[in-house]
Amino acid sequence: MRTCLWLLFASLSLTSCATSTIRSRKQERLTAYHALSPEHRLAVDTGQIEVGMPMDAVYMAWGKPSQIVPGDPSQGVTVTWLYRGTYPEEQSFWSDYDRWHDSGYYTAPYATHESHPRSYVRAEVRFAGRVVKEWHSLPGPGD
After folding, report:
1. Residue 129 has pLDDT above 50, yes or no
2. Which uninterrupted H or E stretch holds 108?
3. Number of domains in the chain
């Protein structure tokens, strides 16, 4: 039983450390990578995308999109991949703390802040017929 638990813990630890990289995604789709033009292979290797690249090349360069949005069927087969990022959003507010003084206990206000992660769309890639039609990197909040 102890050995089974140790093996389970070890396998969970190893899988949680796995991250998707350009190298791992190229290995995952090696046949598609070798089918790319030399220009598109260079773009993938440097994490860039270009108009005219196939979906597989975008996946290898940038990874799995955060969201896939199907397009309007009346305009042909289109799809948009959205890539999200996060930024810390700070909120300032007043709070109270209790304080002991010679004359007794009292509450005093003080200003404080908290930070919460917020999501935003950092890039979008539009495909027509499984090929990049256009793409945009979007500025993050505060950029």
Report:
1. yes
2. strand 104-128
3. 1
For residue 13, is it within any domain? no
Query: What does the block give as tokens for 78?
Result: 């289109």
Edge-to-edge strand order for the sheet containing 67-70?
Answer: 67-70, 78-101, 104-128, 131-137
Q: Write the pLDDT tens digit of every residue in 52-71.
A: 999 999 999 999 999 999 98
Q: Which amino acid is at 47?
A: G
Domain enclosing residue 120, as ranges: 20-136
In a domain, 8, yes or no: no
- In this structure, is residue 108 part of a structural domain? yes
Closest of 86, 69, 80 to residue 120, by C-alpha: 86
Total residues belonging to the chain? 143
The answer to whether residue 141 is domain-embedded is no
Residue where the block lists tokens 């930070």: 115
pTM of the model: 0.70
